[in-house]
Amino acid sequence: MKYPKLRELREAIKSFFSRPYTINYPAEPSIPPERFRGKPEFTDKCIGCGSCAEICPAGAIQLTDSVNGDEESGRGPFRRLVLHYDQCIYCGQCRANCPTEEGVKYTLEYELALFDRQEAYVSVERDLVLCEVCGAVISTLEHIKWLAERLGPLAYANMGLVLAGQGELAPLVEATPKNRDQIGRADHVKFLCPRCQHEVFVKEEWPEGTP
To answer: Where do the H-state alpha helices sit in 77-189?
Structure first.
């Protein structure tokens, strides 16, 4: 009969009287490391620009623009971003490509089992800014304010950014449609989409009789 080696016997006795290496989960919580990619969430720093929806390789982020707003709540135009974390692959691209670098965060929450997959989402809503002439979507109010802060003095090249930087830009509830011949230089003080802004600044160069 072969006897165990003394080293193996010592390890066995030591292991018998010591604490186990594993935790008593789920009776005790398992705390993941600090850089763990758990349940993703939007933060207050989210400006609603939609970069995360564009970059998401799994298509887990849905962007919806409600131009007509919500009549029941009386809210004006808004943008809604929905992150379906049951489709998320936790790659971190949304966080890495966020312009503010703080719009999306990964929590330490990993117990995400649900009976209904329709509940597996997080969302955020931001007010939309529409063109004051044609009503086209320009961007969110928070996004425009963020751009004005980042540009600093360069924002004075655009009247809309000036208003945003001074806190005087408000979401447009209803646009004032105009035909091409009704757009004039006076409209340059309005916040316009690129197409209408182009019409304002090139109108004087139109030949006579242009419809």
So the answer is: 93-96, 141-151, 159-165
pLDDT in tens, 133-167: 788 888 898 998 898 888 888 877 777 777 776 76
Question: Last residue of some domain: 129, 156, 179?
Answer: 129
Mean pLDDT score of the chain = 82
Position 56 in a domain: yes
- Strand blocks (E) in 60-134: 61-66, 78-83, 104-106, 122-130
Contact 103, 93 (CB under 8 A): no
Q: Model's pTM, two decimal places? A: 0.77
The gap from C-alpha 94 to its chain's centroid, in whole angstroms, comes to 8
Task: Quote the domain boundaries for residue 79.
Answer: 32-129
Same domain, 170 and 155: yes
Count the domains in the chain: 2
The answer to whether residue 136 is domain-embedded is yes
Q: Is the pLDDT of residue 191 over 50?
A: yes
Give residue-wise pLDDT tens across range 59-84: 999 999 988 877 777 788 899 999 99
In a domain, 199, yes or no: yes
How many angstroms separate the CA atoms of 116 and 120, rounded? 8
The helix/strand/coil state of 16 is helix
